[in-house]
Amino acid sequence: MSSTAVSSAPVSPQVDTASLSTKVRHYLKSNQIQWARFSSLVLGVSQSRLSTLLGKPKPWHLLTRRVQALYQRMELWMDTRATFGNNPYLTEEKPDGQKSRGSKGRPGRKTSGWRKKPRSLFDLEENNNFISEKMNHEVFLVGAKV
Fold it and tell me: What pLDDT score does 7 carry?
């Protein structure tokens, strides 16, 4: 019996690093995904490392196995997990281009049925009516004494 030795080194398919970097950058931007979140959860590297990988992609044959593995992981994630428009952290924009801020910029605060709290006595309608009546009455009394 003759046994043939099989190489245990896996043959890695070459990845076009430049086009993959462009696709990943576009995906992260269009879905408003933070680079730090993506790099730590998907690749297990820091945000600055992801920035280097996406900003300065090198040809496949010049990369070390570790860096090739990062690009392969990015490609696998883009092929299987990336879904456009499915980011739960995505913030919606108003049609006129202004971001939705909610009540006084606090997220999660409901504005329906909520009235603005008066900050002075002049903000209450009943006080304004009372003051205007008193002012008219005093003007009438001052004019009568002359």
Answer: 47
